[in-house]
Predict the 3D structure of the following.
Amino acid sequence: MKMIFRWFGEHDDSISLKEIAQIPQVEGIAGFLSDIPAGAVWPKQRIHKLKKRVNEHKLRLEVIESVNIHESIKLGSENRDQYIENYIQTIKNLSKFGIKVICYNFMPVFDWLRSDLQEELADGSRVMSYDGKKVDRVNPLYLIEEYEEGAQGFSLPGWEPERLNELENLLEKYKVVDEEQLFVNLKYFLQKIIPVCEQENVKMAIHPADPPWDVFGIPRIAVGKQNLQRIINLVDSEYNGLTLCSGSLGANPENNIPEMIHYFGSRKRIHFAHIRNLKYTGPEKFVETAHPSSEGDLDIYEIMKAYHDIDFQGYVRPDHGRMIWGEQGRPGYGLYDRALGAAYLSGLWEAICKNNK
Ligand code: DNO
């Protein structure tokens, strides 16, 4: 298991590489070039520069989160081949600089979604939460205005602004794309890129839908075991794998995370593990919590144990943290609580390894 930390880059992250390098056991980062729009080629010089900077702090850059997929690919539009060609070029460029895993998602239009970014818990910490009833009342088109205002209530953290410019148009186009069509479009994409990934030794790791159900009536496919099985079988290659995100999948209590780790891990399809905890507060309703099992409804010990059982050699990162100790920053992605999370996960891992020698 290799512990890494998500970093959005100098201009988009309040946390420095120096601070990340001071977290015990953290060996590297999951990097991103936030200004490159979905669909464009990642230039070699930019990847080189990022890699150099990361390495100067004795951290590794072997994972990218994410190289985003252009909507034309998800929609299966006529012009998708050009964007797929660009994606292939990006894979080749990343491979030249030692990138081993690309995390991506196939969620139409919206990436992850929360109804509150700053819910205050009893101890005064702030977390992100989701309430399906609130989401159902929202017209997705109003999200643009909220985004422009800096959104207090609803917001779209981590989203690329260009997705929003096109929102109205996109929502119209998705009216004719159902779940089955999304599978077909994902297959088309994977069939073109996976042979290149095999040659370049870069593993693709699809991130589950977050939350793992349809939002605003738009289908999402990476939601549970059965659909993930289908996805890894669309192209039967180890290079077609998963980012197994405990918090995204875990938002549906029917998803048994340790069982999924055993199933997909023993088939060598988990390349990246995102670990976070949450508490169920009702149907399609939850709050995110600190990482320890005692804080939420997921048993993080059992999750780490499952990774140990499958002899997990991939990358892991602490996922969303709370805002604590007065920290201000990108919701879910502050320094302190994620660093506590990393230390907790490393502690569990050490104990599990020593007990199973
Ligand atoms: C949220 C993240 C996601 C993830 C993308 C992958 O915190 O886990 O935004 O990076 O869905 O493409």
The longest helix spans residues 179-200. Residues 147-158 have pLDDT under 50 and may be disordered.
